[in-house]
Amino acid sequence: MAEEREHTKYDALIAACRGLKPVVTAVAHPCEDSALAGAIDAAKAGIITPILVGPQQRIAAIAARLGLDLAPYERIDTPHSHASAAKAVEIVREGKADALMKGSLHTDELMAEVVRADTGLRTARRISHVFVMDVPTYAKPLYITDAAVNIFPTLEDKVDIAQNAIELAQTLGVATPKVAILSAVETINSKIPSTIVAAALCKMAERGQITGGLLDGPLALDNAINREAAEVKHINSPVAGDADILLVPDLESGNMLAKELTFLANADEAGIVLGARVPIILTSRADSVRVRLASCAVALLYAHAKRVAAGRAGKLADV
After folding, report:
1. What does residue 196 show for φ and ψ, rounded to 5 degrees?
2. What is the pLDDT of residue 2?
3. Mean of the pLDDT values across residues 267-274?
4. What are phi and psi of 247, to 5 degrees?
5. Is 22 in contact with 48 (CB distance < 8 Å)?
6. Taking CA 46 as the corner, what is the angle to CA 40 and CA 52, rounded to the nearest 5 degrees?
7. Options 3.40.718.10, 3.30.70.270, 2.170.150.40, 3.20.20.140; CATH of 130-270
8. Other Cβ atoms within 10 Å of 72 Cβ, number
9. Domain 22-122+276-319: CATH architecture, name and number where available
10. Checking DSSP bridges between strand 142-145 and strand 178-182, what pairing results, if any?
């Protein structure tokens, strides 16, 4: 049997949560073993304080079978998954939770409640997903966006997608994230629309429409993450070969990239949705315990950073 590899990148994320107050998290419909156990594991690790929203008889039956003690946690009864999603979002809107976590319902069902104009959690920023990948062959965490929410994002959408990812990377300790805007080639070609979009995003960053990161593109995947590949093609860029963030052309390419890294390169894929009022934790039944904890840790660190920033803004307003 092969030895389990080290997971130093995710271990560092989880360790960074020590000493922070757990983030109160509305968990929508945790009605499968992995969904409920994942939330309780994160609670035991001191990362989240869950509010379990769903059919309580079903949740209690799962807990009894798994030997989980639900007594320490708030529970809210709902009749079905749609009601669970709506109630979990309502809890966040009322300020009773600072994060939202997907249980065993479909992602589309939860996100439909999040994006509702009247009762949802939208802000002026486009909502997008970021994978925080722990890739054994890459020296640092690799952020991939967007591989889960925006199917065919426009140029304007990608401005927010890039900004969301930059701010997340900064929250997690990357002072100036390097953003590689991916395409099939590293030169601009009018027949490949993603190259035109990449060039526009780079110019927008130069003009201050995207801030906080270094952007370059179009870049093919090899010269975005491999210095030798970039040097062979004579690409002179601080981003090429050393990217922190991979901004993909569309959801299909991003999802395939993340899954390829997971199943062919033994990578782990923690993930979070940003751009809403609070971070949203999207978990999968295939996620390991460590991946679930890492996703929750990212949400806690991001929520904590937002609280700190809000506190500073309040103090400045009082001056």
Report:
1. -70, -45
2. 41
3. 94
4. -95, 110
5. yes
6. 35
7. 3.40.718.10
8. 10
9. 3-Layer(aba) Sandwich (3.40)
10. unpaired
Give pLDDT, residue 293.
Answer: 92
102: Cβ–Cβ under 8 A, 6 or more apart, which residues? 28, 35, 110, 280, 281, 282, 283
CB of 27 within 8 A of CB of 39?
Answer: yes
CA 121 to chain centre: 16
Overall average pLDDT of the 187-212 stretch = 97
218 prior amide bond cis, ω within 30: yes
150, two tokens: 């925006």
φ, ψ at 78 (rounded to 5°): -135, 155
- Bridge partners of 144, per DSSP, are 131, 246
Dihedral sign computed on CA atoms, order 55, 114, 270, 97: negative
Residue 128, pLDDT above cutoff 50: yes
The first and second tokens of residue 108, run together, are 């589309």
User: Which amino acid, residue 123?
Assistant: T
Give the 3-state secondary structure of residue 161.
helix
Give CA–CA dist 257/128, Å, rounded: 17
Closest Cα to residue 104, out of 48, 42, 41, 53? 53
